[in-house]
Specification:
- The chain has three helices and six strands.
- The protein has 131 residues and is of the alpha/beta class.
- It has one domain: Ribonuclease H-like superfamily/Ribonuclease H (Nucleotidyltransferase, domain 5).
- Strands 1, 2, 3, 4, 5 and 6 form a six-stranded mixed beta sheet that branches.
- Helix 1 crosses helix 2.
- It is globular, with a radius of gyration of 14 Å.
């Protein structure tokens, strides 16, 4: 099982979906919120709202997320953890292009890190499904 005390700040990041169900907008449809979190501090470095119909963030959005994440410590991590079911192929490819090791793990191994962030998101935005 992974634990925050296994990592130094900025050694590893976690990319994960904050919402359980797409957030609904009247004009744009449903969106998922993808977050990038530091594994040691559980600090959310950045997030992006991705159309629910998309298979994860685009190549451009993936670059932007990694760039925004690196602004906090002015460096990229050594490792990026992604839940196995998370559609984020462009993010994984961009991370690898930037010499970040991408590790796919079962989401259950990440719940200690991401659970509180998800609960806060759910309290703020609710869990209404896109229609």
């Amino acid at each position: 099982m992974l634990h925050p005390n296994q990592f130094q700040v900025n050694e590893a990041w976690i990319a994960f979906q904050l919402n359980e169900a797409p957030l609904r907008t009247e004009t744009e449809g449903g969106f998922n919120c993808l977050a990038l979190m530091d594994a040691a501090s559980c600090f959310i470095l950045t997030n992006a709202f991705i159309p629910a119909s998309a298979a994860g963030p685009s190549k451009l959005e993936s670059r932007r997320m990694l760039k925004k994440g690196s602004e906090h410590k002015h460096e990229l991590p050594k490792t990026l953890f992604l839940p196995t079911g998370q559609p984020a192929d462009h993010l994984a490819l961009e991370a690898e292009r930037q010499k970040i090791t991408v590790v796919r793990v079962e989401e259950s191994y990440l719940l200690l890190f991401i659970g509180e962030a998800r609960e806060g998101f759910k309290e703020h935005f609710g869990s209404e499904r896109a229609q």
